[in-house]
Amino acid sequence: MCTLSSALDPLPQPFKLLHLLTLALQNVLQFLNPIELLELSQCSHKMTSIIPLAGTKKLNCRFNVPYGCIVINDYVFRVEHNRYKTEYKFRGNRTFLGTIVDVSYESEHEIISFWDNIHTGLKHVFFQVTKVFNCPIDSFESSRTIRTEIYNSIINYISTRQSAIEKLTIDAISLTDEDVMKTFSSLQITEDLEFRYRFSRSQTIPFNTKSILIWHSYWITPTHLSAMKKCIIIDLKQSTLSEDDMKWFLESWKLGEYPNLEYLLIHSNSLSSNFTAFGLPSLQDNVNPGVFSKE
């Protein structure tokens, strides 16, 4: 049974938290931060069931694989490799999806757990905290080295909880075109798509996000550009768009066919140094003349 007691009482008496009425429980739990709530959930399954009374559905979750962390509001659940745990002060161990691991507290706002495999640890912590809090997942940023089975299990998990996500970064060298296309069929991305995957051939994907950044956009054609009319930001790197493609696109933008577009950056080796946008003079880099760029 989980109990609370006062550190000022020389003979503290157990405070039976679960015996409180629902309204009283809400009043107590609302003062606990996400890390404290997760700690409380470790006591028992029954204790886990009352955590949503703290209003955890209003929290937001951001999952950043490159930075090795899950962020719930401003509270960080970081994952480190076991080889580094001697650099931290230990506070005991905790259980994530049945796996017991060592943990350390960096601050009131950050808890670190230590694992033999970073990506496995991130998945376990992510599944645990989102199941306990039952909060929406706002963003998922994958990494180049994440394994396909872990990436797919995370996407499957998110898509069973919600139909859309605000931000998605797709980046994993082990993925296939089929894996990526399944991602787009499983989740709608509403705000920000960052796409680092290299398609083996041109594909048709939805471009309904406000911001699009494609690092390897050699497969993008004018047909794809026509589908980006809702975008506010378009950033295409390593494209193969021709000067005729760009003239058509810029003229369409000028005619109001892209009413939301505020920022456009397209890199293409197919553009000559004489190409200009709307007849404006080319931007010249006087500091590094070897670099030619137009925005």
Structure description:
- Residues 14-51 form the F-box domain.
- This is F-box domain-containing protein.
- Pfam families: FBA_2 (PF07735).
- The protein has 295 residues and is α/β, with parallel strands linked by helices.
- The chain has a domain at 21-135.
- It is 27% helix and 25% strand.
- The protein has helices at residues 22-29, 34-41, 45-50, 118-133, 148-161, 177-186, 222-226, 243-254, and strands spanning 3-4, 15-16, 61-64, 69-72, 75-81, 93-96, 99-107, 110-115, 137-141, 164-170, 188-195, 211-214, 233-239, 263-268.
- Strand 13, helix 8 (243-254) and strand 14 (263-268) form a beta-alpha-beta unit.
- The relative contact order is 0.07.
- The model is unreliable at 3-9 and 288-295 (pLDDT under 50).
- Rg: 24 Å
Distance between the termini: 62 Å
Q: Averaging pLDDT over every residue, what do you get?
A: 89
In total, how many beta strands? 14
Beta-strand percentage range: 25-35%
Task: Write the H/E string, N to C.
Answer: EEHHHEEEEEEHEHEHEEHEHE
Supply database-style keywords.
295 residues, alpha/beta, two-stranded antiparallel ribbon, disordered C terminus
Question: Helices, strands, pairings?
Answer:
Blueprint: E1 3-4, E2 15-16, H1 22-29, H2 34-41, H3 45-50, E3 61-64, E4 69-72, E5 75-81, E6 93-96, E7 99-107, E8 110-115, H4 118-133, E9 137-141, H5 148-161, E10 164-170, H6 177-186, E11 188-195, E12 211-214, H7 222-226, E13 233-239, H8 243-254, E14 263-268
Parallel strand pairs: 3-9, 5-8, 9-10, 10-11, 11-12, 12-13, 13-14
Antiparallel strand pairs: 1-2, 3-4, 4-5, 6-7, 7-8
